[in-house]
Amino acid sequence: MKQDMIVILDLGSTENTVIARQIRDMGVYTEIQPHDITTEELKALPNVKGVILNGGENRVVDGVTIDVLDELYTAGIPMISIDYPTSKCAVKYDSMPDEAAIKAFVFDECKAEANWNMKNFIEDQVEIIRRQVGDKKVLLALSGGVDSSVVAALLIKAIGKQLVCVHVNHGLMRKNESESVVEIFRNKLDANLVYVDATERFLTKLENVADPEQKRKIIGSEFIRVFEEEARKLEGIDFLGQGTIYPDIIESGTKTAKVVKSHHNVGGLPEDLQFELVEPLAQLFKDEVRACGVELGLPAEMVYRQPFPGPGLGVRCLGAITRDRLEALREADAILREEFAKAGLDKKVWQYFTVVPDFKAVGVRNHERSMGYMVVIRAVNTIDAMTATIERIDYDILEKIVDRITAEVPSVNRVCYELTKKPVATIEFE
Ligand code: XMP
User: Fold this and answer.
1) CA distance 180 to 204
2) What number does the ligand 1 atom closest to the CA of 422 have?
């Protein structure tokens, strides 16, 4: 391993990741570890240069105040405490010390080197993956989202054709999305890629299903079924690659942190499909995953794309999905994305998309009364998707988008801009 490490011990702070990020931004690798780590476990971690005891409001767990093991204080590793009252540790801060204090600890006291960068990370991971996998094969569900794409590129670099990527097109992808996965991974990166066009199968299953939860369940379980069928056709797979990233692990709950949400990246895969996991991004924050993708040569559109829900356009074609309404949605979404990119809004707005409700409205086309769909545009900004505000789009840009959608998508005769914040609305409509 090339990089030095500062370990942050989780003693109930809600700011563990803030400090972890701060130190990584200084070019030094950090990991958040549980408070009850033993000296032996600590020393088994590579290149540990210092430890931060990071206390906070969640230090009382089930009525018991948690502490680190006494043996850590004599382990011979530089240590500071933040918001953690202890007399055993030389430097103490009552709250998050300013950046200069952390910097002094990391570089002057711990003598850590600023050697955390994506080039070293990739070199280390390539070695680790090769050691773990040997000459065996790894299977990966490649959705084309940021995390799975970066894992795929990293695994291709490490083990080439021993990686088998399966891309399931559920028919609810955005315009040209599956095509670009095939173009980039099969044609440019020479990946071993199985492309499954399951559009008919998904749309047939979804016919006349109007309930949002039911739609999500069908899409989720059908996805696993298709993936499983493909996995069974392949011989000699021992490993399953996953795009798990650091927030997934932290949010799934450390010993003190409350479970924010459980993450199941390939949730619900049947137990008789037994694989060992390969999760090379498990220590990276989202922006580091993107930087890793850029370093691996993935195109910016893929690495910096906005979030897209697993059920795809399925939750934006409201109510029971019909093929013509899905097509109208896909075209309108492509126009929106094109115009946002032209106006530079794609780099500014967190998430933007179109929705098509399941009714028709009266309109006039070619001097005749006609019934058409309504497209709703939604563009929101947020930090963590728990709350969201509305982007104030320039009126001229909005007007151009409305004109283009109504001209280029004949089944649409109305376009609206949605102005409701989260809460009280959610970001998606279903
Ligand atoms: P809501 O609608 O709950 O969405 O305000 C918050 C964020 O989560 C995304 N989202 C999903 N992402 N699978 C995903 O991977 C899903 O089923 C799903 N549902 C919502 C949504 O796009 C938004 O960014």
Assistant:
1) 25
2) 5
pLDDT tens for each residue of 58-104: 888 888 888 899 999 999 999 999 888 776 766 666 665 888 999 99
Measured between its terminal Cα atoms, the distance across the chain in Å is 45
Cα 428 to averaged position of ligand 1 atoms, centre (Å): 7
- DSSP, res 348: T
Ligand 1 atom 12 nearest Cα: 309
Name the closest-CA residue to atom 10, ligand 1: 309
Nearest one of 101, 174, 181, 114 to 141, comparing CA atoms:
181
User: Using CA positions, which residue lies closest to atom 20 of ligand 1?
Assistant: 309
Q: Is 427 in the pocket of ligand 1 (CB under 6 A)?
A: yes
**DSSP letters spanning 244-311:** --HHHHHHT--SSSPP-----TTTT--TTS--EEE-TTTT--HHHHHHHHHHTT--HHHHTPPP--TT
**Predicted TM-score of the model (pTM):** 0.89
User: pLDDT, tens digit, for every residue of 118-160?
Assistant: 999 999 999 999 999 999 999 999 999 999 999 999 999 999 9
Alpha-carbon distance 107 to 299, whole Å?
35
**Is any ligand 1 atom within 6 A of the Cβ of residue 426?**
yes
With a 6 Å cutoff on the Cβ, whether 307 touches ligand 1 is yes
